[in-house]
Predict the 3D structure of the following.
Amino acid sequence: MKRVVIGLSGGVDSSVAAYVLQRQGYEVVALFMRNWHDTVGTLSGDCPYEEDLIFAELVARKLDIPFHVVDLSRQYRERVVDYMFAEYERGRTPNPDVLCNSEIKFDAFVQEALKLGADYVATGHYCRKESVTEADGTVAHRLLAGTDGNKDQSYFLCQLSQEQLSRALFPIGDIDKPTVRTIAAEMELATAKRKDSQGICFVGKVDLPVFLQQKLKARKGDIVEIEPLSPVYDGRRLSPDDVIDSYGFNTAALSEAARPYSYDRSDGTVVGTHNGAQFFTVGQRKGLHVGGKREPLFVIDTDVENNIIYTGQGHSHPGLLRRALFVRADETHWIRPSQRMAPGERRRYGMRIRYRQPLQGGTLFAAEEGLYAVFDTPQRGITPGQFAAWYAEDGELVGSGVINR
């Protein structure tokens, strides 16, 4: 009998995943991870470690499976939180949940699971895995979107390697969330009605500026508003109907399309102050504290070096919209190496730049320096430091990369 060590988190998804594995005939062992101890910046009640532990242990007892606890807080701080601080300091917006999966749940956790004799590790992610034989006869693993489109979590696993996928099981990837809740209730699992966790992986909901000020110093700076009809936006883009056809393999034109708008203090009007440009991200609305505007202000750019936040009124301000992005070659990841694009190649994919965003049609262009993604329609809030992921028509997550610009 194959032994599976499951990351039992105290939530309903991993609880039902453990039950499904039992039904499938595996020997199931539960391993609860504690990855965070600090409460600085954590909003009250949103990082209930002790409560999570109690619920996880109750589920393990109900299913009559061995229960273990491991502290991975050192690895989490070094691999995820320190990276997060470094990215914000550079003026980029990281996605700690993606790093948490590739560096902790499917790396540090796997090492602990192997000590318990694991043949496989499992999580409660809503995604699927399929093994296929490649043209050279080797076996490879495809990462597929979960069947529940409302809960598909494949995006969070977009940096997993073939080695990591080879040991991974996703027991509820072909089950929808309402059914998971129903199974939990029928099995009288303690987590059946528990709310889903939110916020930063293992940290919970945080007051981000307070959290980041553990290492990043607050500095007062200007908030500058840019008018939507500013000359900055003149002549910078081809029309939406012409972009793909006119670019071809013209990397200079692709680079221009992926270049963010650049601003100077003289391009707009100072409308307020902030406590540090590194605490803000493109598309953000909350925390600006500037009133008296016809429409809400949104962050359209941050200048960390000069400590300036550039803003614009309205959800559709042109500074929020771009049709292309760039991923550097050394920050590009292919789930199956056989799918890697060669320089000069172009392919159509469905793409997303954030979790739960509906897939957006577009074309991926491979150049020596990296990948250019050109979308069929302008995208709101393309943010350096976040991950772009691209999918084949059948739901396979083919690759991903850190948005450079």
